[in-house]
Design goal:
By secondary structure, the protein is mostly beta strands. The chain has six helices and 40 strands. The chain has a 21-stranded antiparallel sheet. Strands 4-9-10-7-8 form a five-stranded mixed sheet.
C-alpha cells in the first residue's frame, strides 16, 4: 500500500540509525553480515563493493521485499534518480539522473538494458529478475552513446539445471489484478529452459469530469520471456537464447492543465478517450566461454518496437476545440557486441570489445481538428553506430590502483522527412572519443576510496515534430563527470557506507521547446550539475536490516539563450535561461527503511521515499513541491 505523507527532515537519515543503537550490543556477539552481491556493472563479474562507481543494486530478494515491480518503483528508491511519466506506461516519460534530463522527443540520457540489450521502452514491468543495477554518472567508455548520465541494467534469471516454479496472484484497488507464472527445469544434462509470464490489468486511476468515465486510462499488459540454455558437458562454453515479448493495450487520457491537477489530481477533462498500444519483441543470443586466461562474450540481439497511440491535444471537453494526435512509431534494431577480458584475480586486468548497432525508426503522425485532418508528417531515420572500446586496471601496489579506458564511437544518420507538400532529406554523422581515468585507494580490506574523470555523450538526431520552416536537426550533447567516492564496510561486514561527490559539466545540452502540437530542439550553451550521494545499510541483528540513501544535486543553466518561434515557424525573439534549473529535475531524493525477517520465510518491509521540489518548465514558473510515499509490505 502507498500513501502520501508530509516530508520529514533529511537529518532522519542519521537519526534512524542512532535510534536503533540498542541493537549494537546484541549484534556484537553474533556472526552475520550484509549479503554480498555479484554484479556486472563494468561488464565483468565483481562484488558490488569492488566497483569504483556510484552504484545501487537491488537483489531478487530485495525486489520482492520492497515490491519493486516496474521501472517507476525502482526509480523512487534510488538516490538522485527520478522519472516523469504521463499516466500509464508510455514513451511520453523520461528519466532524470544527477540533474541530467532528456527531452520528450530525444533519446534518454539513462541507457536502459535488459540482459545487456538496449530498449527504448524503459517504462515497463520488472519480473523474474535476478537483480537490477543502477550506475550513476556517465558510462560512455563501456556503454557508448546515450549513457551520458547513467545506466539501468535489468538482469533476468537464467535457466538452471533444476526443477522449480512459482505462481503469483495479486489484487488491489482500481480493479488491479496481476498474475505471474514461472517454470524452470532441465531438459537433459546439457539443456535447460526457463519461462516467465506476467499479466497485469487495472481500471485506471482517472475519472472524466463530464461523464464520470473512470476507465479512460485502463491498463492491460502482457509480458512473456522464454530462455533456453545450452551448457555442453566438459566444455567451457555456455549459450543462452532468449525470446521476449511485451504487449500493452492501455488507455491514454492522463493529461490536464497544472491548475486543474492541483485542484483535483483524480480528474481529467479531455473528450477524446485515447489509447496507447505497444508491442515489443526481442530475440537475443548470448554466448560465453571461460578460458584459462581470457574470457569471451558475444551478445547478439534484434528488437522490434511498435507503438500506436491516440491523444487529445486540447485537454478540454469542448468539441469546438477538439484537437487529436494519432501517431505510429516503429523501431527495428540490430545490435552485436563482442568482448574479451582477462581474469579478475590479476594485478593487470583488462577488457576490450567492439560494438555495432543498426536502427531504423519510423514516425507517422496525423493531426485532426474537430475530426478533420489539419496536418501530417512522416519521417524515416536510419542510424548506424559502431564502436571499439577498452578498459585497463592496474594494481600498482596493495593500496593503489590505476584505471583508464577509451572508446571510439561513431554514429551515422540518414533522415527522410515529409510534412504536407514539403519533403527533405538530411544526413549527419558524429564521431567521439570517450575517455575515463581514475585512481583507487584501498585504505583497508573493506575500504576503497576512488576518484575518476569520465565523459559521456548523447547522440545528435532529428526532431520529427518541428513546425514548418524550422530545421529538425540538433547536435550531440556532452557530459564530463568529476567524481570522488568511497565504498566501505564496517563492524565485520554488518554496516555498509557508500558515498560520492560529483561535478558534471554539461555542454550543448539538448533542450526541447514545446509549441503544441509541435516542438523543436535547441542545444544549450553550458549547464552544471553538482551534488552528493549516500547509501547506508546496517544489519542491526540477524533479522533486522536498516537502510537509508539520499542524493542532492544543484543543476542549473550556466549559459543558455534560445531563439523562439511561433506556430508558423516565424522568429519571435530570444530568451535567456541562465541560472534557471532544467525542467523535471528534483533537487534531492532520499529513502529510509527497515526489513525484518521472522520465522524463516516471513518478513515485514517498509520504506519512506521523498522526491524534492522540481520545475516543469525551463523558465521555472511552474513547479511541484516535495512529497513522500510510505510503503509497507
Amino acid at each position: 500500500m502507498s500513501s502520501r505523507w508530509k516530508k520529514i527532515p533529511p537529518v532522519s537519515l542519521v537519526a534512524v540509525f542512532i535510534s536503533a543503537s540498542c541493537y549494537a550490543e546484541e549484534a556484537e556477539n553474533q556472526v552475520f553480515e550484509i549479503e554480498p552481491i555479484v554484479v556486472t556493472a563494468q561488464k565483468v563479474e565483481q562484488g558490488s563493493q569492488d566497483v569504483p562507481v556510484s552504484l545501487s543494486v537491488f537483489s531478487e530478494k530485495e525486489l520482492e521485499k520492497r515490491n519493486i515491480s516496474d521501472t517507476y518503483d525502482l526509480v523512487n528508491k534510488t538516490p538522485n534518480l527520478s522519472m516523469i511519466k504521463s499516466g500509464n506506461p508510455s514513451d511520453a516519460s523520461f528519466l532524470s539522473l544527477r540533474g541530467i534530463t532528456p527531452t520528450m522527443e530525444g533519446s534518454q540520457t539513462v541507457l536502459f538494458l535488459v540482459d545487456g540489450v538496449p530498449y527504448l521502452t524503459f517504462d515497463t514491468d520488472i519480473f523474474d529478475a535476478e537483480r537490477v543495477e543502477v550506475l550513476r554518472g556517465p558510462q560512455g567508455t563501456l556503454y557508448g552513446k546515450n549513457a551520458s548520465s547513467g545506466v539501468i541494467n535489468v538482469i533476468t534469471n537464467a535457466p538452471e539445471f533444476r526443477k522449480e516454479g512459482s505462481v503469483g496472484l495479486g489484487v488491489g484497488n482500481y480493479g488491479e489484478l496481476k498474475t505471474t507464472l514461472i517454470s524452470n527445469d532441465a531438459i537433459n544434462n546439457e539443456l535447460a529452459y526457463r519461462a516467465a509470464f506476467q499479466f497485469d490489468k487495472n481500471d485506471g486511476y482517472f475519472t472524466r469530469s463530464t461523464d464520470g468515465n473512470d476507465e479512460l486510462d485502463d491498463v492491460n499488459n502482457l509480458n512473456g520471456r522464454v530462455k533456453l540454455r545450452w551448457s555442453p558437458l566438459d566444455s567451457r562454453w555456455d549459450m543462452i537464447t532468449t525470446i521476449q515479448g511485451q504487449k500493452q493495450r492501455n488507455g491514454n487520457n492522463s493529461f490536464a492543465s497544472l491548475s486543474q491537477i492541483k485542484s483535483d489530481s483524480h480528474k481529467v477533462y479531455s473528450d477524446t478517450d485515447g489509447y496507447n498500444d505497444v508491442d515489443v519483441y526481442t530475440g537475443s543470443v548470448r554466448v560465453s566461454r571461460q578460458g584459462n586466461n581470457v574470457d569471451f562474450t558475444s551478445t547478439t540481439a534484434y528488437t522490434y518496437e511498435n507503438k500506436d497511440s491516440e491523444q487529445d491535444l486540447d485537454f478540454t471537453p469542448l468539441p469546438e476545440y477538439q484537437t487529436v494526435l494519432d501517431m505510429i512509431s516503429k523501431q527495428k534494431r540490430f545490435t552485436q557486441e563482442f568482448r574479451f577480458n582477462s581474469k579478475q584475480d590479476q594485478a593487470l586486468r583488462w577488457l576490450t570489445g567492439i560494438y555495432f548497432e543498426n536502427e531504423d525508426s519510423i514516425n507517422d503522425i496525423d493531426y485532426y481538428y474537430m475530426g478533420y485532418p489539419m496536418g501530417d508528417s512522416y519521417s524515416d531515420m536510419e542510424s548506424l553506430n559502431y564502436a571499439v572500446f577498452g578498459n585497463v586496471s592496474y594494481l600498482i601496489s596493495d593500496q593503489w590502483e590505476f584505471v583508464s579506458g577509451l572508446r571510439y564511437d561513431r554514429s551515422e544518420l540518414d533522415f527522410d522527412y515529409v510534412s504536407g507538400a514539403m519533403s527533405a532529406q538530411y544526413t549527419n554523422s558524429y564521431t567521439k572519443l570517450l575517455p575515463k581515468v581514475g585512481v583507487n585507494y584501498y585504505a583497508g580490506e573493506n575500504v576503497m576510496v576512488y576518484t575518476s574523470v569520465s565523459e559521456g555523450y548523447k547522440s545528435g538526431s532529428f526532431n520529427p515534430l518541428v513546425p514548418s520552416g524550422v530545421a529538425p536537426a540538433y547536435d550531440p550533447e556532452y557530459t564530463m563527470n568529476y567524481e570522488l567516492g568511497m565504498k566501505s564496510q564496517w563492524l565485520d561486514g554488518r554496516l555498509t557506507v557508500n558515498g560520492a561527490l560529483f561535478w558534471i559539466d554539461w555542454k550543448d545540452q539538448q533542450v526541447e521547446q514545446q509549441q503544441y502540437p509541435y516542438s523543436y530542439t535547441d542545444n544549450a550553451g553550458k549547464t552544471v550539475s553538482r551534488g552528493v550521494e549516500l547509501d547506508v545499510s546496517w544489519m542491526a541483528t540477524s533479522d533486522l536490516k536498516l537502510f537509508a540513501n539520499g542524493g542532492y544535486n544543484d543543476a542549473h543553466f550556466d549559459d543558455y539563450s534560445v531563439s523562439r518561434y511561433d506556430g508558423s515557424g516565424n522568429y519571435v525573439g530570444d530568451y535567456d535561461y541562465s541560472d534557471k534549473s532544467p525542467a523535471n529535475t528534483p533537487g534531492y531524493t532520499y529513502t529510509l527503511g527497515a526489513d525484518y525477517t521472522f520465522m524463516n520465510n516471513y518478513f515485514v518491509n517498509f520504506d519512506y521515499s521523498v522526491i524534492g521540489k522540481m520545475y516543469f518548465d525551463n523558465e521555472n514558473t511552474e513547479s511541484q513541491s516535495d512529497f513522500g510515499v510510505f510503503n509497507v509490505r
